[in-house]
């Protein structure tokens, strides 16, 4: 898909990976609909993108709430026109071991609230946004692409039962939708990042950061734009659908 003048929605787009995706896609000529929960961060991101000559507009949304998503996508269509691309990037973590025991006694367990919070944002949010995106593309009568952001943790990761399950489910949605939506000219794809240099990793202790970096075959963290490049490839390559790009520096071989 040629990106010039196409409306691309990016969830979790106000900072981090989402902002990097918006920046790259915008520089390639796309009109960017930034979706995020934080109005102040959204305004700042739009201002920064505008300074780069990118057409971007802000939409406040909670992807875990169906009504909020439905309204946001309706607002995008009204203000910018129907979308041609949707990048489901919004996500959270609430890490905990399933159970933590000492001397045969369980002291802590992952709470149901922590489980549901992550599933609601990272999996249900992808479902609702993907459904709204597909609906809009079909009713507009044009081709489209849905890109879901997973993680190398989709293979399982200690302390992340909720996150790993959600990210595995995200790619299952990608595969399922590729089969269901191809008849309408809609393609899908997943990007599974490894460790990436973001605000979150920058806040880690230097020794922890070094340990993480040394575990990667390329011996460094990825840059947000590396993930954005993968997203752009899926959007632009008209014969790519239902597959995953693992952009992790070779960590999960």
The CATH homology group name: NAD(P)-binding Rossmann-like Domain
Number of strands: 9
Mean pLDDT: 96
So what's the overall shape?
Answer: globular
Output the radius of gyration. 18 Å
Keywords: Oxidoreductase
Pfam family, one: adh_short
Protein name: 3-oxoacyl-ACP reductase
GO biological process, one term: fatty acid elongation
Descriptive terms for the model:
253 residues, alpha/beta, Rossmann fold, seven-stranded parallel beta sheet, two-stranded antiparallel sheet, 8 helices, 9 strands, globular, NAD(P)-bd_dom_sf, 3-oxoacyl-ACP reductase, SDR_fam, Sc_DH/Rdtase_CS, oxidoreductase
Written overview of the protein:
- The protein has one domain (7-196, 223-246): Rossmann fold.
- The protein has 8 helices and 9 strands.
- The protein has helices spanning 16-27, 39-51, 66-80, 112-140, 161-181, 199-202, 206-215, 224-236; strands spanning 7-11, 31-36, 56-60, 85-88, 99-102, 105-109, 144-149, 186-193, 243-247.
- Helix 3 runs parallel beside helix 4 (112-140) and helix 4 (112-140) runs parallel beside helix 5 (161-181).
- The mean pLDDT is 96.
- Pfam families: adh_short.
- Residues 6-198 form the Ketoreductase domain.
- This is 3-oxoacyl-ACP reductase.
Give the topology, please.
Elements: E1 7-11, H1 16-27, E2 31-36, H2 39-51, E3 56-60, H3 66-80, E4 85-88, E5 99-102, E6 105-109, H4 112-140, E7 144-149, H5 161-181, E8 186-193, H6 199-202, H7 206-215, H8 224-236, E9 243-247
Parallel strand pairs: 1-2, 1-4, 2-3, 4-7, 7-8, 8-9
Antiparallel strand pairs: 5-6
Pfam family, one: adh_short
Keywords: Oxidoreductase
Enzyme class: oxidoreductase
């Amino acid at each position: 898909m040629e990106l010039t003048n196409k409306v691309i929605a990016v969830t979790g787009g106000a900072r981090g990976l989402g902002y990097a995706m918006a920046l790259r896609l915008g520089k390639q000529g796309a009109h960017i609909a930034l979706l995020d929960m934080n109005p102040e961060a959204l305004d700042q991101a739009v201002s920064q993108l505008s300074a780069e000559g990118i057409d971007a507009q802000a939409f406040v949304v909670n992807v875990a709430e169906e009504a909020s998503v439905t309204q946001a996508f309706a607002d995008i269509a009204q203000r910018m026109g129907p979308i041609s691309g949707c990048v489901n990037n919004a996500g959270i973590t609430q890490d905990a071991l399933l159970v933590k025991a000492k001397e045969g006694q369980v002291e802590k367990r992952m709470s149901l609230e922590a489980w549901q919070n992550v599933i609601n944002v990272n999996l249900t949010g992808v479902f609702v946004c993907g459904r709204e995106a597909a609906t809009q593309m079909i009713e507009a009568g044009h081709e489209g692409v849905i890109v879901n952001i997973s993680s190398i943790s989709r293979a399982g990761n200690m302390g992340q039962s909720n996150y790993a399950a959600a990210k595995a489910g995200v790619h299952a949605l990608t595969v399922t939708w590729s089969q269901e939506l191809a008849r309408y000219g809609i393609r899908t794809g997943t990007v599974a990042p490894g460790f990436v240099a973001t605000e979150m990793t920058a806040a880690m202790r230097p020794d922890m950061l070094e340990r993480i970096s040394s575990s990667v075959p390329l011996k460094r963290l990825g840059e947000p734009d590396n993930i954005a490049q993968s997203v752009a490839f899926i959007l632009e390559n008209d014969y790519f659908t239902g597959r995953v790009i693992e952009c992790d520096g070779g960590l999960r071989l």
